[in-house]
Design a protein that fits this description.
Length: about 170
Amino acid sequence: MRVIDLSVPIADGMPVYPGDPEVKVKVAHTYECQTWELRQLSMGSHTGTHVDAPSHMHPGAATLDELPLERFFGTSRVVRMNDLVWPESRGLFFRESVGIECFDRLAALQPPFVGGELSEELERALLGIHIVTYTGLRGLDLLPSEADFMFYGFPLRIVSGDGSPVRAVAVI
């Protein structure tokens, strides 16, 4: 068994999507003063490696706390745009940038989630049919090309959450 971390580290001042809240990670308590260490975090819900709930782009759609946990993990496969067949009943990940041109294929398959460098238009369309999306992933090139793996990307349980940073992990 091999475990691959697909997450971007959260760090003070890290790059964010233009207009999103700046990331601030500050030491709030120290061992010397309080006898424990504690960090204060300030960031947007779509910071770093994150999952998007349908409510992110569609008013009244499902929020993170309304989605069952099964939507955030499962058997997955890396696919390419030009693959003749994409497997059914799996989360699908793309190493290449993909846009709306693959929406019809994804809509027909109804994967529980899709991840990779997705165009805003594709992300909006997928969320519109209740397929959660993962973006800000790294290390997809370390995943097998023609074999299944288990993916785990659990969000924080944010009430009315439109998205959440995740620790995205593949188990091969």
